[in-house]
Specification:
Elements lengths: L2 E9 L2 E7 L4 E5 L6 H12 L8 H4 L7 E7 L4 E6 L4 E5 L2 E3 L10 E4 L11 H15 L1 H21 L6 H41 L5 E6 L7 H10 L1 H7 L10 E6 L2 E2 H4 L2 H23 L4 E5 L7 H10 L5 E5 L6
């Protein structure tokens, strides 16, 4: 057991709430809308540093002026997060900070019902999903992504003004080229890491000979920083017309390949669910190998979306992890 308890105050629809995790597997049972997912969200804030579904002003219970979360680990350590409509504060190791310190983070594998639609999702949905995984695995990726997104926002704002000068855009071009090439390289490395295990894990679930993999679609293959910068400058006329940056890693996509074809449209519903299960298992395996910690598994009402064999597979695969499950009905585990 890793998490001992978590307490919420003025969080979403909870005035106060406390969850005691007395076993390796904890079930949060309740009807839809009662706040089960909010408990998982609070855990993510104090393990990852941020929510997986909203900004802080949206989290405070209506009519209240603050929220507070306290998480206690089994070894007695605590993490506290507060937000007062202005400032978010974390208290870890008896110190206050505006962000959750890297050493205070703990790997989490979150499984949402919407993840089962990942195969058919949009490119932006794919990027968001894998950017999150890669950011947890690699702090350089996390920092580069944050700096890239800020530079991209500033450049796009300039492109919307009347005839911005090349000089005013150049500094943002430099940052996009610098961090874009870092992210591009890291994405290739991390996709390869996933593909080392994805197919074999899928076979253990589906018990067939289908071949699956994850493909990285990008315009930036083997591109250098200077080539990236040149491409941004060559696309300036187009970008001015569009009002946004048309070239870069923010346009990349990740596709699931099933027997040599794009899985979206060629894989059945059951095959797609097996593929996503395999991805989650690989995600947990990589976190443990790279970060040296068994991740906490958060399962948000996914059992209603899975048949019995896949439910059993999910439970069996995570039997050595701490698992916290939300459900509207009793779950056998």
């Amino acid at each position: 057991m890793i998490i001992k308890s978590i307490s919420l105050t003025n969080f979403r629809n909870h005035d106060t709430y406390r969850l005691d995790c007395n076993k390796d597997t904890t079930l949060i049972l309740g009807e839809n809308g009662c706040g089960k997912t909010s408990v998982l969200e609070a855990i993510c804030i104090l393990t990852r540093g941020k929510s997986f579904r909203a900004t802080d002003p949206d989290i405070i219970k209506r009519g209240k002026s603050f929220y507070r979360i306290e998480l206690e680990y089994n070894n007695g350590e605590t993490r506290i997060a507060t937000y007062d409509n202005k400032t978010k504060t974390f208290i870890c190791f008896n110190k206050k900070s505006r962000r959750l310190p890297i050493k205070a983070r703990y790997p989490v594998v979150l499984f949402l019902p919407s993840d089962l639609n990942l195969v058919s999702g949009s490119p932006s949905r794919h990027r968001d999903y894998f950017d999150h995984i890669f950011s947890e695995l690699n702090n350089e990726y996390n920092e580069s992504l944050s700096k890239y997104e800020k530079a991209l926002h500033q450049r796009n704002e300039l492109l919307k003004t009347d005839q911005p000068s090349k000089d005013s855009l150049f500094s943002w071009n430099l940052l996009l080229a610098r961090y874009g090439t870092i992210l591009n390289k890291k994405r290739y490395e991390l996709i390869e890491l996933i593909n080392q295990n994805l197919n074999s894990v899928y076979h253990s679930i589906a018990e067939n000979n289908d071949i699956i993999s994850l493909s990285y679609k990008t315009e930036l293959k083997n591109i250098s920083e200077s080539e990236y910068l040149k491409a941004l400058e060559q696309n300036l006329t187009k970008d001015l017309y569009l009002g946004h940056t048309s070239f870069g890693i923010h346009r990349d996509d990740f596709e699931f390949i099933f027997n040599g074809k794009i899985a979206n449209g060629s894989a059945s519903r059951g095959e797609t669910r097996s593929l996503i299960l395999a991805l989650k298992f690989v995600e947990a395996k990589i976190f443990e190998e790279k970060l040296g910690k068994k991740p906490i598994i958060l399962l948000d009402d996914v059992f209603s979306e899975l048949d019995n064999p896949r439910r059993k597979c999910l439970i069996d695969n995570f039997k050595d992890n701490q698992v916290i499950i939300t459900s509207v009905e009793e779950v056998t585990y």
